[in-house]
């Protein structure tokens, strides 16, 4: 039977069309596939379940067969996020837009990979660097079991709030949101500082005007009192705003004092708007996907140390893995979100920098830690592959006295990153089923040492490490001008690679 697949009107990156065709082949196994007048034509011998499979496609706007027209579910769910004109790809549908967490990757890529890997409702998926839960949410929307791991407690908090949102009716979320806003406007709002401040309060008062501090504290209490099991949804929505109303420069990744003017819009008005927008997204999405049973979750856990806690994962359990790990000399995930972390009570202020320094790819090195890793690199204590060890030494030998302290640390940082990622690859392998795929979207990096530019091909380095500890490398796909979205998009890596590994 003949089918015609039509592209959307928005501009595609080349890799998206490549993934789209891989989806068609994996889901439908067509006898023939060819392009004509920018329409993909396929011939299928098996048509009994074709319509349901065609509805799962990620990147096509519609499918025609004879007099029948099929609209993929992805089109409908994207339209719920304001993509009705179909002139751009929507990435904030369902609960994806609850927080502009730094380093998000496109949910469409996740869904496409689930299709390419033929992951179904009986499959189990893992994301060992789950961030704000893009993979978890996409799996939930497809009724696929998934678990996420992340060392950042804010990331875990956001990811699990998304799961709460899709498992509760939008009208219930709206009702609670209205109650919180009404509570704020009806209160007398007579605030006084306690006689003795907690460490948390002292820290927040350094970074918020007193009036703003009282407002976010009042809202936090109101949320805890009024929102019940939905409270984390509203805490996440507010945490997404507080940086804009702080004394921290919002556009700066680091903690630096504000120079830009404060928003003219009142915080409570911005919060109400964000609640309403989120509710509308959830409401429209649920009309397409329905309510989801809350079964997927993120866990605050380090993927380098899987054996440290029994019962977190089961051996030979996962049918696939999809993740976007940090890259070498990663941006400061914890430092950027420290206000939310402290305000939510996820970590005390004195734990911010130790946690930042413990992240894979972190650039935060205390002198003692730097010296320890310099000694490890000198003898290759972590036993990374010899060629990668030599590459780190090449960078070390390129340093000159004119290089600042951050550049001086690059070779050791790269060595530590490769050692940490090797631990992750090695420890994760036993938890995958035989022949199970593991997809990683990895950013490239570059540095200048001794006046010479070095392009650090992180994906290539990671493939070599993965193969060394037992993974099979299936393929690597360049993600041309792949864009991350959010308040830090100007600092994002625009050159990335999709690595697909497989357990033997």
UniProtKB/TrEMBL annotation:
Q: Which UniProt keywords apply?
A: Methyltransferase, Restriction system, Transferase
Q: Which Gene3D superfamilies match?
A: Vaccinia Virus protein VP39 (3.40.50.150)
Instruction: Give the gene that encodes this protein.
Output: MC2
A Gene Ontology BP annotation from the UniProt entry: DNA restriction-modification system
Query: Is Transferase one of the keywords UniProt gives this record?
Result: yes
What protein am I looking at?
DNA methyltransferase C2
- Where would I find the DNA methylase N-4/N-6 domain in this sequence? 77-157
GO molecular function terms noted in the UniProt entry: DNA binding; N-methyltransferase activity
User: Which InterPro entries does this one have?
Assistant: DNA_methylase_N4/N6, SAM-dependent_MTases_sf
